[in-house]
Amino acid sequence: MKIATMLVLLGLAAQAGAQTQDGKTVFAKNCAACHMPSGAGIPGAFPALKSSPFVQGDATTLIGTVLKGRAGMPTFAASLDDEKLAQVITYIRQSWGNKASAVSLQQVQAVRSGSGAGAVSKQDAPTNIH
Ligand code: HEC
User: Fold this and answer.
1) Where in the chain are the domains?
2) CA within 20 to 30 Å of 11's CA: 38, 41, 122, 130, which one?
3) Ligand 1 pocket, 55 CB below 6 A?
4) Ligand 1: residue whose CA is nearest its atom 36
5) Is 72 in the pocket of ligand 1 (CB under 6 A)?
6) Where is pLDDT greater, at 94 or 122?
């Protein structure tokens, strides 16, 4: 293999590693208190994200849920920017044995701006933002 090719591959690997690391940090700060660092949640209170078909399912629906919040879960539309949302959603889709595609910045932007299905509209947004 040519050295230049190897360097490119190494660079990509380092980038992917950094992305996962950032997602882990965002998760630890914003999600782990309820969903637990292990992703197992607390039965009866906070759903498990580990082995969850929902988390590994349709990305647009998942992005919408984390943006808007739902029932006992706060909205993250104001506290996390699109890049952090993409990082943390990719992290939960690819951790604890979960195996789903990464979520890109563009996918989050599309859901936030309303051009994707499951988009966040103003009327929809929960009012109990904290
Ligand atoms: C204050 C506690 C709390 C925090 C913090 C929290 N969640 Fe949740 N989360 C919940 C609760 C409660 C539910 C279940 C809501 C319901 O009953 O529909 C939930 C549901 C979910 C679901 C849907 C699970 C399913 O199977 O339907 C996802 C995905 C999720 N949370 C991801 C996250 C992510 C990512 C973060 C951090 C950015 C986060 N949550 C932070 C409490 C929390």
Assistant:
1) 18-113
2) 38
3) yes
4) 31
5) yes
6) 94
Cα separation of 46 and 23, whole Å? 20
CA dist 25 and 22 (Å) reads 5
pLDDT at residue 130 is higher than 50 = no
What architecture does CATH give domain 18-113?
Orthogonal Bundle (1.10)
Residue 17 C-alpha to ligand 1 middle, in angstroms? 25
Reported as a single tens digit per residue, the pLDDT across 89-119 is 999 999 999 999 999 999 999 999 987 555 4
Mutate to test the pocket of ligand 1, among 27, 31, 60, 128 (most ligand atoms within 8 A of CB): 31
Q: Say if ligand 1 is within 6 A of residue 29 CB.
A: no
Please, is 40 exposed, middle or buried when counting C-beta atoms within 10 Å of its C-beta (0-12, 13-18, 19+)?
A: middle
Residues 6+ away with beta carbon under 8 Å from 90: 19, 20, 23, 102, 103
